[in-house]
User: Fold these one by one.
Assistant:
Number 1:
Amino acid sequence: MRIGVTGPDLIFGKGSVYNHTIFTIKLLQNRHTFILFPDPALFKKFRSNKEYVMEQIEKLESIGINVANGFKDLLDQGAKYKDIIEKYSREYSGTVDLIYSFEYLDNYIIPEDFIFELSRKMKTKFAVSLQGMGDFDLHISNYIRSTLMFSKTPKIPLYRFYHYFNRKILLYKLISSNNLAFIAVINHSYQRNLNLNFPNIEVMNPGNGIQNSLSENITEQREFYKEKKIIYFARLTYSKGLFDILKIMKYIISKDGNVKLIVAGNFEHTEEKNIFFNYLKKYGLQGNVIYKGFLPDKDLYREIATSKVMIYPSHSDSFSIAVSQALALRTPVVVYDIAGLSEYKDMRAVRFVNEFDYESMAVESMKILNMDDVTSLFDYSIDRFLNERTWEKVAEQYDIMFRKYTQK
């Protein structure tokens, strides 16, 4: 079977969705032929970094991802958006069984219709996986409430309102398309955020693999002594709880001034970084909050393993590998009760509190900090949960879906 791939960007891409796509294709390359159709909206960036792009193309082809014929010519010719789609469709019309996007999410100011247009031109059905699309609750009342809670800078509400209407439009266009074969979602609680009305929705279980994301020696690091400290690591941005952690720590320090918080990760935006350190100073937390920046896996795992609890006040998740990493290192986690983290429900080592309830997150964290032995919160079910989430199982589900909807 020949599968055309339109997303995510596998040339400049990185992160969890990129890994999701790469691992899946590598495991299925002997069953299907994958052809990458680079997004025409990114060609300006491709042309500005041509040498790097060609190096990445070679790497992709070495793991079984073929890049559309004529891609290099299209770069050299300076072809425009519609010309690129025309070239793809002329070359591959009638030869591709399904066009697939492993991440249907448009981040451009004016949304383009690449997968729709390519599908129409090639007269081929398309399908999508929703990963980042439903990481926020898109019900209007809840969305407005959370937006007001986020308002540390005027840019955040403006971005979020654009974000809301853009995603609503994209979802409407998606389920209204006659060429849509199916939608795959990677979390059984995804409907809680999106409320999709479409007959062919495939809920993946597991929706992500995590074993490849855990170091081979991670179990050895479980033996480190647990210090009375808290770990928070993520992409450092408001949607991952960057500003929430300071309010949570302010409450904790008011009860116990000896607690330390380790913050690890890269800031996504300079403005958010400045706000974070300004509030750190305003709340008088400089002596209790230690910013480590980005840490290599070995150093990060050591910080997690020696922490007694992880706080993860994320507002935006489809499936958190960070929580899995903490659990693998026998570090309990306190999280917000959002749809993307529902996979961890019913685990004694994961405590859920209402979103934006800083005090409750602080209280639950302190309960764990004051425990003599946090390993009592872990049992065989957590190891079974971690061991079941393999990329082989993820890839097998894709194989079944591809064959089901192309009847091959």
Number 2:
Amino acid sequence: PAGVTSTDEWQADGVLPYRIILGELRNTNGVEYTTVQATAVQYADGRIDDGSVHEPPCVYLGDDGLTSAQARELAAALLETADEVDSWTQR
């Protein structure tokens, strides 16, 4: 799919082989261990697992997998907190 930067090897799993696909690895400039990457399980027929067999598509923050809804919630919380910090120094 669009945006995939790398893939694992195909794995044999019963009837339909699958592989893990990975999106771009993103980092926060100047902050160690803050990596963000999209992952999904793709079957040989092109379908993406919805989580009913292996794992739904996830946004990984370091080693923690988040659903897209959880990632959006985290993004909103980070923006709100950054605004709060900025408000402390604005006069």
Number 3:
Amino acid sequence: MKTLEKLTDEELAMRYVDGNNRAFDVLLNRTQQKIFSYILFIVHDQDKADDIFQETFLKVIYRLQQGMYATTGKFSAWVMRIAHNVIMDSF
């Protein structure tokens, strides 16, 4: 069995859906800098970026738990799309 760090993002997402909370921690660690940087680049405000980042990952968690993620796409692109939508909603 592969260690979590060696799994793809998509595999980690499915492990989280199956109840492995540690898999989500690994996913978050892998993607948080990229997602936060994107949000901050768009909104130019640290506090607003923090709020949008938190809302983004709440939506990611909710959608994963509701089975709304299909492994046919790239996980990071899926999260980035959610972040983009949260940014647009904030404006």
